[in-house]
Specification:
456 residues; alpha/beta; Rossmann fold; 11 helices; 22 strands; globular
């Protein structure tokens, strides 16, 4: 027996409630609850359900070696963990205009060139002519690449069943809708059901699917959180729109390591891979300039050397400004407090600006020491040694704490020609003073590090 029931569903988080409210109790967003009538089936608690599956011992499950699809785009290959797993669903998200469609159109072109089977690119936001214009700019002309401008889920699945493509790209999941649902495209219900339909198709046919996802103002993927849980991999394409570099970051990957990154440069002909990003980020560095320090950071398993710039100037306001570009603002406030309390720098009347050159965003605390050295260098107007690389996390009492993957960091700094590297004493073996011809300088405190780093 079916019974109708009225519930109110939040269009931001997908939670449902029996009564309407102006603010969603689950996510805190305002005016997001929409009325929905659902049918509830009454069942007897004593009804027995005949099982359709049987539990098996894990030792009885046969092991299968999955053959990945190699991608000619090596940076994307790295982020995915070595290639595309057949039947996987990969979600790529990013801000508008960051290059998601460009990246996937280039990928579709490469796969169409390598495969004898067709590659299907589905667009719910652009016409075929608009995609053709972008393809001409990117020099995409493979006959095996098929373009479909469609927003109906059922029509798309029919085309996939008929064509049996090698790979499917859907741009974007928020533009696709099912004709059997009454809600509008992009709503919580539509995004969830369309994503599950593509997921079911991919698992049953072994066809990899790339989904493009929109992001909200807060930087989260638009739609229900279940979308990120359902897919096999979630990739974020990041970058400053005023810089040419783009970072493709893996935040979820069932078939590889997370936090891996690929670096691209946006050019007129599309996204170009950057195989050696450290050299690119340091190419325009001005040596012996005060307020500049070189940090050795890790993005996944890849070491990167980036320039940290800091500027201090007397403030004209009662409360000094603190501006951070590329690092977390709360982390910057912590480092300023440590410099003031433990080192004696009087920054209470100084505006402090910190920037990571190249437009990349760094989240790991191993750049703390480089940021603090750059601030002290700018405040004292004393340059940092030009051949010095810096790595280390700073504690609240001014001590330097060890960081992971020190061997890879030192190897990258030595490869780029740095003569010295300032490291926490707890991150290297006792007595180690060199690495591949580079001097390793272990220090225990921030004050000791500043005495070594700043040129007298």
């Amino acid at each position: 027996m079916m019974k109708e029931k009225t519930v109110y569903v939040c269009q931001n988080c997908g939670a449902s409630f029996p009564k309407w409210a102006g603010r969603c109790p689950q996510c805190g967003e305002w005016n997001t609850l929409v009325e929905k009538v659902v049918e509830v089936r009454k069942t007897s608690p004593r009804t027995l359900i005949t099982p359709t599956s049987e539990p098996v011992p894990i030792t009885a499950v046969p092991s299968e070696d999955v053959t990945r699809i190699e991608i000619p785009m090596l940076e994307l290959n790295r982020v995915l963990g070595g290639g595309i797993v057949p039947g996987s669903v990969i979600l790529i998200a990013g801000e508008p205009g960051i290059g998601k469609s460009t990246l996937l159109l280039q990928l579709a072109s490469m796969l169409a060139r390598e495969s004898s089977r067709p590659v299907l690119y589905v667009s719910g936001e652009e016409s075929v002519r608009q995609i053709k214009m972008r393809a001409a700019r990117l020099d995409v002309r493979e006959e095996n690449l098929y373009i479909l401008a469609e927003t109906s889920l059922e029509q798309i699945l029919n085309h996939i069943e008929r064509m049996e493509p090698f790979v499917v790209v859907v741009d974007s999941i928020q533009a696709i809708y099912s004709e059997y649902l009454e809600s509008t495209p992009g709503s919580i219900v539509q995004v969830r059901e369309c994503a599950y339909a593509f997921l079911k198709m991919a698992k049953s046919t072994g066809t990899p699917v790339f989904l493009v996802g929109h992001v909200t103002k807060a930087g989260d993927i638009a739609g229900p959180k279940v979308l990120e849980h359902a897919v096999d991999a979630v990739l974020y394409l990041e970058g400053d729109p005023f810089h040419a570099y783009r970072i493709l970051r893996s935040v979820k990957n069932r078939f590889g390591a997370t936090s891996e990154v690929g670096v691209f440069e946006m050019e007129e002909q599309g996204l170009r891979e950057v195989p050696n990003p450290s050299e690119i980020f340091l190419a325009e560095r001005v040596p012996n300039a005060s307020g500049s320090a070189i940090a050795v950071t890790m993005e996944g398993s890849r070491p990167l050397l980036v320039e940290i710039q800091a500027l201090t100037s007397p403030t004209s306001f009662a409360i000094p400004r603190r501006t951070a570009n590329g690092i977390d603002l709360s982390r910057l406030l912590l480092l300023i407090a440590v410099l003031t309390k433990r080192v004696g720098l009087h920054l209470s009347d100084q505006d402090v600006f910190v920037n990571v050159v190249g437009g990349i965003k760094i989240k790991e605390p191993a750049v703390d020491l480089a940021v603090a050295v750059a601030i002290a260098s700018g405040f004292r107007n004393v340059p940092v040694a030009a051949d010095l690389a810096i790595v280390g996390e700073i504690g609240l009492v001014g001590e330097l704490r060890g960081v992971r993957q020190m061997t890879q960091r030192l190897a990258e700094a030595a490869r780029l020609g740095f003569k010295k590297c300032l490291v926490p004493s707890g991150s290297v073996k006792a007595g180690q003073r060199t690495f591949d011809g580079m001097e390793v300088v272990p220090v225990r405190s921030l004050e000791e590090a500043l005495d070594i780093a700043l040129v007298r």
